[in-house]
Each structure stands twice: as structure tokens, then as C-alpha cells.
Amino acid sequence: MTSSGFEALLEAVRGPASVNVLVITGAGISLASGIPTFRGTDPGAVWSNEVMEKGTHAFFQRAPHESWKMYLQRFELARAAKPNAAHRALVAWEAWQEAQGRGFAVVTQNVDSLHEDAGSRQLVKVHGSLRLARCSAQGCELGAPRGTVPMASVDFSAFHASPSPETVPRCPRCDSRLRPHVLWFDENYTEHDTYEIERTLILARQSRVIVFVGTSFSVGVTELVYRRGRKLDARMFSIDPSNASLDRGIEPVTARAEEALPELVRVLQS
């Protein structure tokens, strides 16, 4: 890969010994694993299915069974998916950075578990996880701001037999309805401690290179990190096949993540 953007990214990563790297991943990195994006042009893009309305706390309150049906469909899709070359390359890049005595972290907008399945260790799941549920009651020990429930421990048999508000699984502590442990569009990053938004902003402040991978820059965390990086004069890059509209001082690497990231690691290791 010889694009000017790729060479600029390589130069930045190979820069001074103090260079820490922060990678922000979006749905585009998981597309090669068979998980549709939200706003992309792929045939299964979730955005075409009214996710702005359904991906909200307000919708869960109105129709908790319909909300769970949507997330269980995505859970089954994600559970069958495997990490692709981009996820594995980030693990190798993390190891290379550590061997050089440099910091490295991944902040993912994705609620799938492909980064952890691949082996990423310095990982922030800023939008939650499909592998977790939590109580919908504020103040319950299994709800916000700290509590969660493993999805594997939740009994959905009655719900699968007859989806309805009455069969939505209940919290084992207080009997309120369980909800997916995901950040909905009408919620804030401070809703739950496990979103680790403060850690994300600290990582952005400490990083001299910030790489956005497979994101449309349409969610809050990308704007927060972008503003922090711009203020601190960090080098910022975007790895995505549809980078034509970038005009914000972010340097484009116009390529698929599963192609660009393994090549980057190959060159770093050589």
C-alpha cells in the first residue's frame, strides 16, 4: 500500500519515542466480519431500519419487547461473527507499541465483542456491550451507574416463546425489567461508569497520534476526541474506503481497515 495517507500514518507512528496511539473504531471495522454498519452503504445497514427511533430509551419504555427483539437479533448476528484481519492487526499493533515502550489503546463504538475476542487488552467499550444487560431501574445494584448482568445468565425462554412486555426478562434483584447494556441515542456517556468516557478523554489528551477506523464521525465520542486532538495538535487519521468528504484536518487513508491495518503492522514489524 503506497498511498500518501498510508505513508503519512506510518511516518507518524514511527515518530518520536514518546508517541502514544489512540484508535477509535466504528462499525466499518466489523463489516468484514459480517456485521452490518449503521450509516454505511452496505445492504444490511441498520440505519435504514429506523434505528434513530428504536435505539432510544424512550422506545424501550414504550415497547420494551420490540426493543429487545431488535437487540437480540443483533446479538445473534454478533455472536456468530469472528474477528477479521483488522481486529487481529490492532492486537499486533498494540504489542508493537508496548515493545517500543509506547502507549496504545482502542476505544470502540461497537457493541460487538470482536476486539476482545481478537485479544485487545487496552480497550474501552464506550457504547456498552451486547454481552451484558442491566436493570432498567435507577439505583438498583444491577443497574446504572455501575451494575450489569451477563447476557449468558438471562433466561429468555418465555420471551422467545411469546414476545411481549410481560415476558421481558426481569432483574433478579428488584424485579424491574432488564434492558440491553448499550448507550441509546437519547442517553449520555455519563449514564454508566463502564462506558469510561473520562478515561477516553484522558487517552485522547495523552496521544499524539489518533486514528479513526471505519467511523462516519456521526456520534458523540468521535467529536469529543476530535476536538481534544485538534486542541492538542495531535496527528489525526481516518482509515475508511469512503474518505472523500474529510475536510477537518484529519488525514485520509482511503482503504478498507482489513487491508490497511495488517499492512501497517507488517511494515512496522519488518
TrEMBL record:
Binding site residues for Zn(2+): C135, C140, C171, C174
A Pfam family per the record: SIR2
InterPro entries (alphabetical): DHS-like_NAD/FAD-binding_dom, NAD-dep_sirtuin_deacylases, Sirtuin, Sirtuin_cat_small_dom_sf, Ssirtuin_cat_dom
UniProt entry keywords in alphabetical sequence: Metal-binding, NAD, Transferase, Zinc
GO molecular function terms noted in the UniProt entry: histone deacetylase activity, NAD-dependent; metal ion binding; NAD+ binding
Top-level taxon of origin: Bacteria
Enzyme Commission (EC) number: 2.3.1.286
Keyword Nucleotidyltransferase found: no
Domain Deacetylase sirtuin-type, chain residue ranges per copy: 1-270
Active site annotation, chain numbering: H127 (proton acceptor)
Protein name (record): protein acetyllysine N-acetyltransferase
Organism for this UniProt entry: Myxococcus fulvus
Lineage: Bacteria, Pseudomonadati, Myxococcota, Myxococcia, Myxococcales
Gene, per the UniProt record: cobB_1
